[in-house]
Amino acid sequence: MEGKWLVGVDIGGTTIKMAFISLNGDILYSWEIDTDKRDSGRHIPTSITRSIDQKLTELNQTKNRLIGIGIGAPGPVNAEDGSIEVAINLGWEHFPLQAILERETSLPVVVDNDANIAAIGEMWKGAGKGAKNLICVTLGTGVGGGIIVNGEVVHGVNGAGGEIGHMTSVPKNGSPCNCGKSGCLETVASATGIVRLAIEELACANDISQLGDYYEKHQTITAKQVFDAANEADELAKRVIQQVAHHLGLALANLANGLNPEKIVIGGGVSKAGDALLGPLKEDFVLFAFPRVAQGIEIVSATLGNNAGVIGGAWLAREKLFNKSMIIKNR
Ligand SMILES: [Zn+2]
């Protein structure tokens, strides 16, 4: 099986990231295509299939090179048949992704949730560095999460395991969340949530703030500006980050108290704030974590960026398709 390739695919709302990856997890070729959302996303599997074929032709390779496809999609996944229960931004409902893609590509396919494959990617080749027990949280437009226990992703009874973004952080009078609840972690720790907290703080604060000046002029701010202002000692921005760190520290400490993991990996666009967030987050985490849990843990920034998903997809293909087929062959 020397020289065989794994295919990692990460479906997002605007682009689909794809890669041919070695059995050791090294990205050999990576590229992306637009997500074709026409007709309730029904062309997505075909566009993935075509793109794989095109890339193989470009590289003078045949499908024999490929072991199989590991693919991540937004939304809860039915582990039985690799279908997506619902992915609102793609237009999918009970979408049999695995079945269609296997038929179209003639390759074995394994499907998981996009946040889960990102967590697996970080476990395998990223900040997880092989830790078998880790929590991965992605702070972007929303808050995604993946929990890995003994090297396996926690899916739960109906595919909703690891939904860290929907842990309740503000039990009373919280902001409404996309999931239908209110006060979810996502409403206070996502980029959108941070901006909302900052605007709330600006409305009731009367201290001089560069953030306030900017907002007054442009009537808009970004999460990055909040972090930049905090780094430049803007007191108001610092208070906003303190609130974010408080909610995130509380949620992650409670989660860690139940799991006793080795690492918490913080990824996503918001994590680019680095120590401006990680510093206060670690302080709050220690406040709420069981002391022995806090002693055993390391909180780190994700290292794979946008590649986490395709690498995690490749790991799934290797573990679930390649290793399994080897076991059957060796019987
Ligand atoms: Zn929610």
Question: How would you sum up this structure in a few lines?
Answer:
By secondary structure, this protein is α/β, with parallel strands linked by helices. The protein has twelve helices and 13 strands. Strand 1 and strand 2 form a beta hairpin.
Task: Give the key terms.
single chain; alpha/beta; five-stranded mixed sheet; globular; binds zinc ion
Strand order of the largest sheet: 3-2-1-4-8
What is the radius of gyration computed over CA atoms, rounded to a whole number of angstroms?
Answer: 21 Å
Fraction of residues in β-strands: 15-25%
What is the count of β-strands? 13
Cofactors, ions and other ligands in the entry: zinc ion
Low-confidence parts, pLDDT < 50 over ≥5 residues? Answer: none
Order of helices and strands: EEEHHEEEEHEHEEEHHHHHEHHEH
**DSSP helix fraction:** 40-55%
Arithmetic mean pLDDT: 93
Shape, please?
globular
End-to-end separation:
17 Å
Query: How many H/I helical runs?
Result: 12
Main beta sheet: strand number and arrangement?
5 strands, mixed
Question: Structural class, from secondary structure content?
Answer: alpha/beta
Note down, in words, how this protein is organized:
The structure is a single chain. With 331 residues, the chain is of the alpha/beta class. Helices cover 44% and strands 21% of the residues. The chain contains twelve helices and 13 strands. The protein has helices at residues 38-41, 44-58, 97-105, 114-125, 186-189, 191-204, 210-218, 223-231, 235-259, 275-288, 291-296, 308-330, and strands spanning 5-11, 15-22, 27-34, 66-73, 77-78, 83-87, 92-95, 109-113, 134-139, 143-149, 152-153, 263-267, 298-301. It has a five-stranded mixed β-sheet. Strands 11-10-9-12-13 form a five-stranded mixed β-sheet, with helices on both faces. The protein has a three-stranded antiparallel β-sheet with strand order 5-6-7. A hairpin with a 3-residue loop joins strand 9 (134-139) and strand 10 (143-149). Helix 6 packs across helix 9 and helix 9 (235-259) packs across helix 10. The longest helix is centred in the C-terminal third of the chain and has 25 residues, at 235-259. It is globular, with a radius of gyration of 21 Å. Zinc ion binds next to loops. Zinc ion binds at residues 166, 177, 179, 181, 184, 186.
